[in-house]
Amino acid sequence: MKALSTPAPKQIASQNPKSILTKLAEWISSRNIPFLISSTGMIVMLLWAGSYKMTNPGAEGIIPLVSNSPLISWHFKLFGPYIGSDMIGLTEIVAALFLIAGHFKPKAGIIGGLIATLMFFITSTMVITTPGAITPVNGIGYMSFLGLFLFKDIIALGTAFGLISYFGKKAVDAEIRD
Fold first, then answer.
1. First-to-last CA distance in the chain?
2. CA angle 160–120–69, rounded 5-degree value
3. How far apart are CA 93 and CA 44, in angstroms?
4. Whole-Å CA distances, 136 to 85, 140, 160
5. Are 112 and 103 in contact (CB under 8 A)?
6. CA dist., res. 86 & res. 58, Å (int)
7. What is the 3-state secondary structure (H, E, C) of the chain?
8. What pLDDT digit, counting tens, does each position of 66-116 carry?
């Protein structure tokens, strides 16, 4: 009688082909698709939102958000809503430009990610501080459309941290090579 043996890990892998799901996940990962989509989306969003904040409707649209935020309401008191909104918009554009530069110089991407992280942390807190963001329905608090609009900044905050991580790894690799 032959003794039963357990095949070595490499033998197991070669005997069992990869599933379609793992092949798909490997394909997505090997082409860096999560980074490409998240960085491109973040850059477009920051450029678009930043430039919109430099218009009168853009400035007027963020007055209730900024005015009720204990973290940034001082900004409008000091500069007024139009110049204050221009400065916020310019900050978003600068963050986007650093993220673009990060594709060539990873440390620039880290700076862009840090700026975005600070911005999205502040705007994420506005879900709590902005009147009308949470609306009661039958005694239960739900996020209104405004609340959901602000809540997306929590996802953007996570994306900004992801970009810092990605560019950070690239910067470390570049330092090791040099």
1. 59
2. 170
3. 10
4. 30, 5, 31
5. no
6. 9
7. CCCCCCCCHHHHHHHCCCCHHHHHHHHHHHCCHHHHHHHHHHHHHHHHHHHHCCCHHHHHHHHHHHHCCCCCHHHHHHHCHHHHHHHHHHHHHHHHHHHHHHCCCHHHHHHHHHHHHHHHHHHHHHHHHCCCCEEEECCEEEECHHHHHHHHHHHHHHHHHHHHHHHHHHHHHHHHHC
8. 999 999 999 999 999 999 999 999 999 999 999 999 999 999 999 999 999
User: Left, alpha or beta for 2 (phi > 0: left; psi -120 to 50: alpha)?
Assistant: beta
Angstrom CA distances, 146 to 31, 141, 152, stand at 36, 13, 10
Q: How many CB atoms lie within 10 A of CB 61?
A: 13
> pTM of the entire structure?
0.85
Within 13 Å, how many C-alpha atoms sit on residue 83's CB side?
7
Percent of the chain at pLDDT > 70 equals: 90
What six digits make up the tokens of 98?
């650093």
- Nearest to residue 87, comparing CAs of 78, 57, 145? 78
